Amino acid sequence: MRYTLDSHVKRDPRILSVYLEARRLYGEKNPCHHNFHHVIRDLYRALVIAAEEESVNYSILIPGVLLHDIGFCDPNFKRVGHDVTGARLAQELLAGLDYEEGTVEAIGHCIRAHKGKAETPSTIEAKILYDADVLEKAGLTYLILGGRIVCEFEETIEDFLEREISDRAKELKKGFYTRKARELDGGRLAQVKSLLSQTRKEIQQERPDYQVRESDLWEKPLPEAVGPGAEPGL
Ligand SMILES: [Fe+2]
Ligand SMILES: [Fe+2]
Fold first, then answer.
1. Is the N or the C terminus of the chain less surrounded, counting Cβ atoms within 10 Å?
2. How far apart are alpha carbons 110 and 123 in whole angstroms?
3. Ligand 2 centre and the CA of 34: distance in Å?
């Protein structure tokens, strides 16, 4: 089976409008990780998962996946989270593209629920998006993609590890909603959590050199080198 968008666009041409608008918006901001490439990977996974589920509404699922991380394109997303911010942005965008209120709300739910925090996925489309997005983290490739997140969030490796290990633990406790996602995971999410925990332990107990900062090399601080924003850390 081919997991392509053509037949969906033929049935519902609004999907192409959302696709092009999403590509434009992510492209303008072009975050290191939460960009259109990430969205394309999630969309492919969502189509693979959806093919094995009953009664999936692709006019909800595809726009939901395309717009699920659009909140990162808003500079103020941290106030309420990129999930809630993204749902608001998406609903504004969809209202201008001839989407009826019920569909806009269903897509909004998918986006608000894709982290499983602001809302819990309650529809099959929201469950598929949640699973597709968690699967991004369920593979060794995520250890490479993690570097892009450190770059995008301008955070230290320690902060990245603390958040990611905590998030993986919550995702593992919750589990996947769909059978296909469980099959694709194949225990990889747990493996990634274990490797992230090993990395944190190594840095904390054996390799402090990975978190050394410029100021650690000086007894007296250098005026031009010390201060807010002068030392981003690893
Ligand atoms: Fe997200
Ligand atoms: Fe995502």
1. N
2. 8
3. 6
* Predicted confidence (pLDDT) per residue in 201-230, tens digit: 999 999 999 989 888 999 988 877 555 555
Cα gap 114→48, rounded to integer Å: 17
Ligand 1 centroid from CA 83, angstroms: 6
Residue written as token pair 């995008």? 152
Distance from residue 86's CA to the centre of ligand 1 (Å)? 9
pLDDT band at 194 (very low <50, low <70, confident <90, very high): very high
Instruction: Convert the pLDDT of each residue in 160-186 to its tens digit.
Output: 999 999 999 999 999 999 999 999 999
Cβ neighbours of residue 18 closer than 8 Å, sequence gap 6 or more: 62, 63, 66, 67, 93, 94, 97
**Residue 81 CB: number of other CB atoms within 10 A?**
15
Q: Which residue has the tokens 């958040």?
A: 163
Give the pLDDT mean for 11-21.
97
For the entire predicted model, the pTM comes to 0.92
Distance from residue 101's CA to the centre of ligand 1 (Å): 23
CA pair distance 103, 109, nearest whole angstrom: 10
Q: Which residues contact 133 (CB under 8 A, 6 or more apart)?
A: 42, 68, 114, 115
